[in-house]
Amino acid sequence: MHSSHSNSLAPKDASARLSFGSWIILIVLLSLLVATGFIVYVGWTLEDGIEVPAAGYVAMAFGVLFSIAVGCGLMALIFYSSRSGYDEPPVLIAPENNLEAPGSSAEQLKS
Prior knowledge:
Layout lengths: L13 H4 L2 H26 L8 H31 L21 H5 L1
């Protein structure tokens, strides 16, 4: 079944989707990315002749492996939490007004 009703919020092309503020944010973020890349390049090539000892490479490798392990562990916890139902919103379960509850009688409730 084809509906003649078109979604007016869905733009026909990507350029219609971006407003002036979106373009400004995009330009600022891209400028920050370029500036960061330039600073990394300058920092990397500024000083020649500095040798990193083997202990530095070992420490860097352990740091990278530890970061990857922490990231994988956190992602595993997110998937476990999501699939186990821990991420569901809380639901209020109202207690039932049961007159025949154990230890109570109808005569006690009337008085």
